[in-house]
UniProtKB/TrEMBL annotation:
NCBIfam families according to UniProt: FeS_repair_RIC
Compartments (UniProt record): Cytoplasm
Protein's UniProt name: Iron-sulfur cluster repair di-iron protein
UniProt-listed Gene3D superfamilies: nmb1532 protein domain like
Gene that specifies this protein: ric
Organism: Oceanobacillus halophilus
Amino acid sequence: MYTSRNLNGGFIVKFTVEHTPANIVKVFPKASDLFKEHKIDFCCGGNRPLKESFEEKGLDENFILSELNTSFEKWNKEDHDVVDWDAKPLAELVDHIRHNHHAYLMEELPALGQFVTKVYSRHGAAHPELRELYQIYNEFRVEMEEHTIKEENEVFPLIKQYEQEPSEELLIQIRSANGDLEDEHSSVGDMLKKMREITGEFIPPANACGSYQITYARLAELEEDTFQHIHLENNVLFARL
């Protein structure tokens, strides 16, 4: 049984408007689905209290909190193997990001790019929004590939070195690099939001062919993985440094 906790070591009974989306997702990963449904940012801007998102978006805080806490209460009674990444060695978290999220991106980005191009080529005349999708996707792909290479070749080795041999000099280097990476995270996060808007929540037209449907489904999976990826880096890895 997974016991939920807050950052002070106490037990969470209910989430409130004072909790941040980032910390909620740490103890209740399934909350990310609810946040995506209501377009509440839990990765790039996940450190603001929920009440700010509710006010900014004009959301019904009582309805969403009720939905969140009801789901959390049910989930918390079940058995879940949830990793507390705040308590794990930095090197283990870095390797998890590399072997899961980075490996996924390097395989999926070129493959999905072929589908995006194919759908645009065949259906762009009837669906002009596919041209914009094609352009933004390729911007996203270049940004994420360069971002991943920078992390693997420059930042992650520094983090592992810092964990073994901590020094103020290394920490300054890491924090400087992380600031740039967080800016890049915000940029790709905006691209993902734009792709969701262009595709109408990744829902293909009623008469869409198989390739069209596969493209939108894989774009939705890419969004999910990238948001989790950014959440782990911004709100766990970088926050610990």
